[in-house]
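$ ./design --mode recover --in tokens.txt
reading tokens...
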């Protein structure tokens, strides 16, 4: 039972990460022209393209990608709660709210983890290989978080502490999710 739950969680998390990354890349105007963008688009088109017929983009956001991520998390949460079986003796309405709560919470946590990963990637690449093909997307993805921090905390002796501060703040956000 645990092995099945683990595999389902791994597969769902992989696709949910891709859907969220597509949403976040589009929202933060990251170019899809590189390898990462192409990878994300090719692995998510199967769900996002049909959803765009139902849920069009609005206010500059690709809502179809976000709804695809939510659908994957709702399905996973429903299956995992269903696998728990009769130990959860609630009525259908309470179970539906529980599934929705777990799915939304998982999506928010995953979005924070994506940002933390992008911040770490950007920090490492800035020291090792600032001209890597991953550097520009990582920079574009993290710029909206780092720019306000950089206005408050200046570079000290050529070292930018804003990624560290952003990661700490995102860790605090995770404590509340």
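writing sequence...
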């Amino acid at each position: 039972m645990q092995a099945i739950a683990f595999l389902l969680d791994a597969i769902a998390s992989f696709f949910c990460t891709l859907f969220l990354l597509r949403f976040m890349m589009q929202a933060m105007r990251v170019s899809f022209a590189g390898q990462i963008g192409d990878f994300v688009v090719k692995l998510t088109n199967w769900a996002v393209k049909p959803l765009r017929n139902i849920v069009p983009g609005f206010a500059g956001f690709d809502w179809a990608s976000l709804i695809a991520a939510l659908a994957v998390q709702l399905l996973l949460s429903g299956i995992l709660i269903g696998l728990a079986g009769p130990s959860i003796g609630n009525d259908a309405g309470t179970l539906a709210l529980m599934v929705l709560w777990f799915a939304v919470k998982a999506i928010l946590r995953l979005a924070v983890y994506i940002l933390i990963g992008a911040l770490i990637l950007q920090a490492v690449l800035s020291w090792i290989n600032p001209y890597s093909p991953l550097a520009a997307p990582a920079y574009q993805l993290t710029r909206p978080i780092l720019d306000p921090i950089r206005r408050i905390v200046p570079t000290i002796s050529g070292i930018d502490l804003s990624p560290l501060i952003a990661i700490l703040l995102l860790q605090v956000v995770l404590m509340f999710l």
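exit 0
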